Amino acid sequence: MRVPGANGYSHAQATTGQERVITGNRQTSWAFADAYVAEDEALLWARDRAQDAGLRSVTPGTGAALRLLAASVDAKAVAEIGTGCGVSGIHLLHGMRTDGVLTTVDTEPEHQQFARQAFRAAGFASNRARFIPGRALDVLPRLADAGYDLVFCDGDRLESLEYLAESLRLLRAGGLVVFEGAFAGGRTVDSGPQPTEVIRVRELLRTVRESEHLVPTLLPVGDGLLCAVKR
Question: Around 185, how many Cα atoms within 13 Å sit in the side-chain half-sphere?
């Protein structure tokens, strides 16, 4: 599915003759895939804390994809933008090497405290995660060049292009950058007027797709998972 306005394609052009009809069976299949990997008590506890705090967590299917992606690059060092209450972090840690360290950044230290508890309940030693409170664009420049195997971005959509630039600096060759929320609740492919954050998502999708330094794909899990390998 092409992003509206990208390379001159409209929503109608993107769907006519290009997409199969989304049937009830396909929707059921997507729902089955999203719940395919069961979540343990620590993840359910973290989800409850996030719900209490009014935070949106990655879906189980998105979490399972993050596990797979972390395992696929044998990740030892992962940077996460947006700790939340630890749901995505637990999935990433499950996919990482047993000696791997997750560096996770969030503007809300109290949410990170819930994540610490969730990580501990999931069986991860305290030295498996480094919590840094603060705004991502203030923290990321302090992290090491080419020092990370995967960067997961689940922060402010208005800053997504800046996250991409920082991720390219942080990643080693062959590393992965991953963005959650590429569908923006279905608004990314809606032809009507959209808020600035959706326009930013469209710009991100176009930039990643057209970059000579990235090999991209868009996974239809959760609210859309944009993934790209750094060449």
Answer: 6
131: tokens are: 């919590």
**What CA–CA distances, in Å, run from 111 to 67, 85, 147, 168?**
22, 5, 26, 27
**Strand 225-230 versus strand 214-219 pairing type:** antiparallel
pLDDT of residue 1: 39
Residue 161: other Cβ atoms inside 10 A: 15
Q: For residue 119, give both structure tokens.
A: 């990580």
Give the integer Cα–Cα distance in Å for 195 and 224: 18
pTM of the complete model beyond 0.85: yes
Question: CB–CB of 182/205 below 8 Å?
Answer: yes
Q: For residues 216 and 194, what is the distance between their CA atoms, to the nearest angstrom?
A: 24
CA gap 5, 64 in Å, rounded? 31
Q: H helices then E strands: how many in the chain?
A: 9, 7
- Over residues 74-110, the pLDDT tens digits come to 999 999 999 999 999 999 999 999 999 999 999 999 9
Measured between alpha carbons, how far is 33 from 146 in angstroms, rounded to an integer?
A: 33
- Distance, in Å, from the CA atom of 218 to the CA atom of 179, rounded to the nearest integer, reads 9
Spell out the residues 6+ positions from residue 138 whose beta carbon is closer than 8 angstroms to its own: none
